[in-house]
Design brief:
2 copies of one chain form a homodimer. Chain A is an alpha+beta fold. The first copy, chain A, has one domain: Orthogonal Bundle (Arc Repressor Mutant, subunit A). In chain A, about 50% of the residues lie in helices and about 15% in strands. Chain A has helices spanning about 15-25, 30-40, 50-60, 85-110; strands spanning about 30, 65-70, 75-85. In chain A, strands 1-3-2 form a 3-stranded antiparallel β-sheet. The longest helix of chain A has 25 residues, at about 85-110. Chain A is globular and about 60 Å long. Residues about 1-5 of chain A have low confidence and may be disordered. The interface of A and B includes residues 9, 21, 95 and 108 of A. The first copy, chain A, binds a DNA duplex (30 and 30 nucleotides) through helix 2, helix 3 and strand 3.
Chain lengths: ~120, ~120
Amino acid sequence: MQRQPSRLELLQGTLELIILRTLLAGPAHGHAIAKHIQRTSEDLLQVETGSLYPALHRLEAKGWVAASWEKSDKGKRARCYRLTALGRRQLAAEHSKWEAFSRAMGLILKPAAQEEGR
Amino acid sequence: MQRQPSRLELLQGTLELIILRTLLAGPAHGHAIAKHIQRTSEDLLQVETGSLYPALHRLEAKGWVAASWEKSDKGKRARCYRLTALGRRQLAAEHSKWEAFSRAMGLILKPAAQEEGR
DNA sequence: CAATATTGAATAGACAGTCTACACAAACCG
DNA sequence: CGGTTTGTGTAGACTGTCTATTCAATATTG
């Protein structure tokens, strides 16, 4: 019996965009980012920690986010990430790339009128 | 000087959906499928042969398409692919998965009203 | 006939990014 | 004390796309 995931797998290449977009709402630490994504997507998307932390490290290495150790609400050490100016530009670029891709998919997927009936 | 691709890279996981959708319009061989995708997406998407043929083989192995050797219009040997009944169901499933993912992305990306101004 | 372009299929190997599955630590709570 | 929640992190498997290349048949042109 195979398990069927009710949640979607992330399409590769979208995670960084999602994280950057999430940080636009304000600085946050990893755990909070993951929860925010899940909540905002109405539980459709869930980011695994094995994807999240490597992604955050990549973003930091590229200078799109900056990080510092803080205390979370619950008093735990937490690495707080915030968007840099560079990250803001990157967010805009990736957002529009997503829009273009999404539009392209729409063009291909839309019913092309009287092609199905033959 | 880095080259910047005017075309988008495919998001991993979308190619099989695109191919199945293309074959819904009727049987076709690899080359024709690639051209159709590029044309239909208004040149936004381009499938490389190194992605296309492995994908077609995967689809065939899974029984979602069936293949046979034919002669193309230009008189060349060409492997003609057509959608199977199973492939039709798979297309529907993957299409709706795409819709869900796309919707989730929309939820995350949309301006969340007065979150940006702080 | 030879050279070249076009059509078409195919593979090898690099590579990126997500996943599963862990490990670890600190705080709080019964 | 032991369990749960919160939080960060890594290792390794895996999937699928990409680049780059090969091969072959046909058509065209000199």
